Amino acid sequence: MSAPSPPRPLHGQRILLCVGGGIAAYKSLELVRRLQDAGAQVQVAMTAGAQQFVTPLSFQALSGHPTRTTLWDSAAEQAMGHLELARWADRILVAPATADLLARLAHGFADDLVTTLCLASDAPITVAPAMNHRMWNHPATQANLATLHGRGVQVVGPDDGPLAEGESGPGRLREPDAIVAALAAGGGAQATDRALAGLKVVVSAGPTYEDLDPVRYLGNRSSGKMGFAVAASAARRGAEVVLVSGPVNLPTPAGVKRVDVRSAAQMREAVFAAFPADIYIGAAAVADYTPRLPAANKIKKSSESLALDLVRTPDILAEVAARTQELKLVIGFAAETERVAEYARGKLVAKRLDMIIANRVGVADGGFESDSNAMTAFWKDGERAFASAPKTQLADELVDLIVERLHA
User: Fold this and answer.
1) CATH architecture for residues 14-185
2) Do domains 14-185 and 200-294+307-406 have the same CATH topology?
3) Which residues form the DNA/pantothenate metabolism flavoprotein C-terminal domain (predicted)?
4) Which pLDDT does position 187 carry in this prediction?
């Protein structure tokens, strides 16, 4: 008896691939093949700029369908063909999505075939950005991405690496196989993906405050934004989510049960009270030390120096990871100021985690208190870099990866 064929994660889905005008358009040819290998039906629409890099005939040969390039095709538009194509699509994938194309999508333009198709369709949209790293990091591009993300658009990539002009940085189109995996995993507020349905996810977020006396405390700069975004993304994927939060000023995400705590000891108690669970994501910046004996009254300014007697707090993440029989995945975060990869991999091994997410703090436009970040995920046999992007977008990309690792 022959072996069963492997599952095709996009089986039967009708995907409209919209190709933007960047040098990375050549990778979209391979993307057509990878989408078909995953079981999808593919039709292609191109911007005028895309046709300067790759010919419509190439996409027609690979997809088996005529490539659409203009709103002014009298034969195709005799029966309003662009509306028919917009209705045909189950998903729209824009790859590469240039800075210009992202801007026009964010502002609702319908000045060519691609933007009109995106505006005329109810299908979920995924964009795979590709551009120079300075264009990617520009506040205008980041604002456009935030607008699109707020509408439920899934953003995949870009990767950090060599660029066509000889420079290096975030802006490289994610590889076709990774784009297909992200589509299969789902994502975005409009997506119907329920990849985490039936699973319980516990997320810790924000700082802890360790009281010195009734007036003062030891704390850190964590805003909780990343943990809250991850909790929201997991809830959108169908998970039952418990969010254990230190002191932050953030609204509770929709569909999430929130437990507020103050100290490391209280966070530990709340995390373990939320078990049993399937996944633990330790995004909180838990204090490493706490006063041995907090003062009952305000400590008075009576000398030129003050020595504090501090003791270690419980290592919540390591304790959770020790419960290997009860959880499918334990994921930690590492905020570092130097030797980020080295320290993160050390924690991954020492705490016996399934994955750790590392980022550099103390830098502009990233880390604590910022709305954006860049990070790298490490696991035993691999890693994945996430280029600088809004934390809400990074959360969706991270949950995409978590879904992948669940089935690895």
Assistant:
1) 3-Layer(aba) Sandwich (3.40)
2) yes
3) 196-404
4) 45
**HSE of 283 in the Cβ direction (CA atoms, 13 Å)?**
30
Tokens of 264: 């490391």
249 noted as active-site residue: no
The pLDDT of residue 382 is above 70: yes
Judge whether 347 is annotated as a binding position.
Answer: yes
CA–CA separation, 66 vs 73, rounded Å?
12
Is 200-294+307-406 a CATH 3.40.50.1100 domain? Answer: no
Under DSSP, the state recorded for 207 is B
Would you give the end-to-end CA distance of the chain in angstroms?
26
Residue 298 marked as a ligand binder: yes
- Structural domain boundaries in the chain: 14-185, 200-294+307-406
pTM tops 0.85? no
Catalytic residue among 220, 249, 297, 359: 220
Please indicate if the annotation marks 333 as binding a ligand: yes
108-120 confidence digits (pLDDT tens):
999 899 999 999 8
Length of the chain (residues): 408
Tokens of 245: 């939060």
288 marked as part of a ligand binding site: yes
